[in-house]
Amino acid sequence: MAFKKFIIRSYEGHSDRAKVEDLERRCKVGPSESVLDTMGDPMCRIRNSPIYIMLVAEMENELVGVIQGLIKMVTVHTHPPKDMAKLGYVLGLRVSPHSRRNGVGSSLVQRLEEWFTSNDVEYAYMATEKENHASMNLFMEKFCYTKFRTPTILINPVNSHLFEISSDIEIAMVKVEEAESLYRRFMGSTEFFPSDIENILRNKLNLGTWVAYFKGDSDFCLDGKVPNSWAMVSVWNCGEIFKLKIGKAPLSCMLFTKSWSLIGRMFPCMKLPTLPNFFSPFGFYFMYGLYQEGPLSGKLVRALCKFVHNMASRSEQCKIIVTEIGGKDDLIHHIPHWKLLSCEDLWCIKALNNEGTNKFHELSNTQPPTTLFVDPREV
Ligand SMILES: CC(C)(COP(=O)(O)OP(=O)(O)OC[C@H]1O[C@@H](n2cnc3c(N)ncnc32)[C@H](O)[C@@H]1OP(=O)(O)O)[C@@H](O)C(=O)NCCC(=O)NCCS
Q1: Phi/psi at 347 (nearest 5 deg)?
Q2: pLDDT value at 2 more than 60
Q3: Residues with CB under 6 A from ligand 1
Q4: Which residue intervals define the domain N-acetyltransferase in the entry (predicted)?
Q5: Cβ proximity of 151 and 327 under 8 Å
Q6: Where are the domains of the chain?
């Protein structure tokens, strides 16, 4: 069968917007067949990053593929410690179902990597689900990406019941400058910590940063002393820019959901939280920059999570709270989440230039650090 020719070019907002949105709606991603509604702005997932691009593939005036990329500086764990690297993140690769296995996806990835290289990017990385075989084969076999980190995505449904926060705990919102100073001081050497953290904290999608500590513990002196035990979190409102819809929940999840609502109906006195309907578009909050320090900080993390939940339950659109942490991070024990809804993410990486290649061996062969900074702009 002779394949038709296609061209790769930059996205043009006025003529491509509706076509890209239509393509996004037609492309179900991964085994959960999730679909993204970008609410009129297909670039919404990249435009908050320092440098970004969107490329499209066009075949006989039809838009058959799209890819997005962004560039940023982050902390990586090579020697000397706290080294920085220029990273390119690949996201939003979609090829129209009837144009697949025709090299469109590969050409889009190749052109994006060329753009990264022309911008002196040292590494390209991407995130996918392990079960997305098409994406895994494309990146790992064809483009030689290697498995790098396996963070855990934790999901907790939002319900109308408010959680009580222990009266011995103080939760305070901190100003952007204070949050930046705390993050640079305590998370600056965390893997993938973005050098432009201030841009994230100042973004309109950022709802704020909160610290928790025990009343009566030593005071918070932002440039100096911190309490013996304390914790911090920031919240990003993803629902403001896109909505998510799940096409197919795993069988175990569906059975659980059905039994859960049955029990809820039979025993209303139990006040079971209602499960959101994942099959119609919903928004979510993303908790990021979670940090804990001190012997009693686990309790403080739980209090912060309750606080964020209560904030989300007052919002009409927010149906779940999502967070992503390093695969071996102890935080998992303190962040409320539903195991059936939570999953493992897979990050794959590739060196793009000599400098990157030299550091690459070290980077990809070191034991994954327990903590990881997941940039809310890349959700
Ligand atoms: C993943 C996707 C972009 C691939 O696009 P594509 O244009 O079909 O890719 P290509 O034709 O360039 O294929 C390149 C290689 O990827 C692999 N591949 C592509 N589709 C595959 C599939 N269904 N099963 C297994 N491997 C597949 C193969 O190794 C293929 O090389 P080959 O054709 O020489 O065997 C496309 O299937 C898609 O849009 N899927 C839905 C969205 C998605 O999952 N995006 C990735 C998010 S990370």
Answers
A1: -105, 130
A2: no
A3: 27, 29-30, 93-95, 100-106, 128, 132-135, 137-138, 141-142
A4: 6-208
A5: yes
A6: 7-150+345-378, 154-238+282-342
Angstrom distance (rounded) from CA 92 to CA 95: 10
* 251 or 304, which is more confident: 304
189: tokens are: 């050497």
| Protein residue with least CA distance to atom 19, ligand 1 | 134
**pLDDT for res 313:** 92
State the chain's mean pLDDT as an integer.
Answer: 88
For the beta sheet containing 318-325, the strands, ordered from the edge strand earlier in sequence to the opposite edge, are 169-174, 206-214, 230-237, 283-293, 318-325, 152-157, 343-344
Residue 304 near residue 298 (C-beta atoms within 8 A) = no
Q: What is the pLDDT of residue 222?
A: 61
Q: What's the CATH architecture for 7-150+345-378? A: 3-Layer(aba) Sandwich (3.40)
Nearest alpha-carbon partner for 173 in 206, 142, 148, 147? 206
154-238+282-342: CATH topology: Aminopeptidase (3.40.630)
Which of 104, 108, 137, 346 is the best mutation target for the ligand 1 pocket, counting ligand atoms within 8 Å of the beta carbon and taking the most?
137
Predicted confidence at residue 193, as pLDDT, reads: 96
Contact 286, 235 (CB under 8 A): yes
Global pTM value: 0.89
